[in-house]
Write a structure and sequence with these properties.
By secondary structure, this protein is α/β, with parallel strands linked by helices. The chain has a single domain, classed as Rossmann fold (3-Layer(aba) Sandwich). The chain contains six helices and eight strands; from the N terminus they run E-E-E-H-E-H-E-H-E-H-E-H-E-H. It is globular and about 40 Å long.
């Protein structure tokens, strides 16, 4: 059993990001891990065919605090500005800070779908450009997560420089190819990745039309051995629409997050 709670989280622009928290049926502590689900560009916190609801409930039944939320301008969340990759990153950092401070959680796992997987990857690698620093591409500068607070004028203390170390495992569901456009919002120096191979899992549907291009792009930045971290679901499309695909997907997610073989 578990409990679910609907919450609103203020970002630094005083916009409200709405989320559902799934609480395990046990007293959680600072040793409890959390899982945050990041939807795609056109998605919302329920996910396609309520996939995020099913994933969150399965994880919570295994003892994890799970949270799924709407990026600003999606689902229930407000937006006073245009949605971009930097705003998606900012929303995710706001939610992570909320979980760390308000729910007293230590380790954070991220599950991203489609574009949400890119956000998870960028946050896991960390080392984003500080606000005001020039990037090689001359693009909008990103604010570091350790400068982001969760509650507007009533925010708790800012998180420490160890913010990125709180992010443990990441699962990329049907991740989009890592393109030159996305590299513009990357890290220093030269957008190199430094992610432990045991901390990342990529899951594709075998019938996903962008699968091969996406896998090639991730091999390029994470190395050829990344194939050991790729799982393909038989007869599944980009959104894992069949009941069998759903079941296999959730089984693989639980095995990876819990560390079971």
């Amino acid at each position: 059993m578990y409990m679910e709670d609907f919450v609103g989280i203020k970002n630094k622009n005083d916009e409200t990001i709405y989320a559902i928290i799934h609480l395990p049926n046990k007293k959680y502590s600072d040793k409890t891990d959390a899982v945050i689900l990041l939807h795609g560009w056109l998605g919302c916190k329920t996910g396609p065919h309520r996939l995020f609801v099913k994933i969150a409930r399965s994880l919570t039944s295994s003892g994890y605090l799970s949270l799924r939320f709407d990026f600003r301008g999606r689902g229930s969340s407000q937006s006073l500005s245009k949605t971009t990759i930097p705003t998606l990153l900012d929303d995710a950092k706001t939610v992570i800070n909320f979980v760390i401070h308000k729910k007293k959680i230590n380790q954070i796992n991220l599950i991203g779908l489609s574009l949400g997987s890119i956000i998870a990857l960028l946050l896991k690698n960390g080392n984003l450009y500080p606000l005001g620093e020039k990037t090689p591409f001359g693009k909008t500068k990103l604010e570091r997560a350790d400068r982001t607070v969760w509650g507007g004028t009533n925010a708790p203390p800012k998180v420490s420089n160890g913010f990125y170390q709180r992010i443990s495992k990441i699962i990329l569901l049907s991740p989009l190819p890592y393109t030159e456009e996305i590299k513009k919002y990357s890290f220093k120096p030269s957008y190199k990745f430094n992610i432990d191979r045991d901390d990342i899992l990529l899951i594709f549907g075998k019938k996903d039309p962008i699968k091969d291009k996406a896998i090639a792009s991730y091999k390029h930045i994470l190395g050829d051995n990344i194939k050991k971290n790729i799982c393909e679901i038989e007869d599944a499309e980009h959104g894992f629409y069949s009941l069998l695909a759903e079941d296999l997907l959730i089984q693989n997610i639980l095995r990876f997050i819990t560390g079971e073989k």
